[in-house]
Amino acid sequence: MSHVMEGFKELSSLHGIQGAINVVKIHIQKSMHIFASDYYLLKLKAYNMQMQDTIDHRKRFLDVFVGMSSSINNAKMLWLSSVYKKATQGYLFNENILHEGIRPYIIDDKGYLFLPWLMVLHQQMGVHHYVFQALFNKRLNHARVVVENNFKILKKTFWELLNKSNLNVHFLPNVVVCCCMLHNMILNGKDFNIDELMQ
Question: How many helices (H) and strands (E) does the chain have?
């Protein structure tokens, strides 16, 4: 995984990043298979299923956790996921590998709590450390660009499946995971230009 840390270092000048984590909402059609209170999000006036994904510097999925209702917040999603279980049991990373003296970690913005293996943006800027905290936030955001854009790419590639999907909610998580696997296979292809999908 050292190549992942090197890739994130090129994006952000930060050492030790093993991945970027994010939660996105997948729009679904209302059906008799879902409980409205679980999947309806009043703010968006739509039915949604949530997906938590962890991405590397090349926009490949490292981990996908999908199927939770919109009523669950990011912290609870993380707590339920395999990423959290692996991290707390000590086998998310090879902790013996230090990158320029720093233990590996994953990154997110303000949706998660700070943990020993999860780095988030500074929320309350201290007067004496404002410049350093602002610089850190800027660099962290440079690294997070990969995860911000990744679901847009996934939706564009698999438009019919991931835009207002009318699939049964019990099948949709498996379909999403398959789409993520195909996405990784496409990115691993030699003649594929990811920037074409962003236009």
Answer: 7, 6
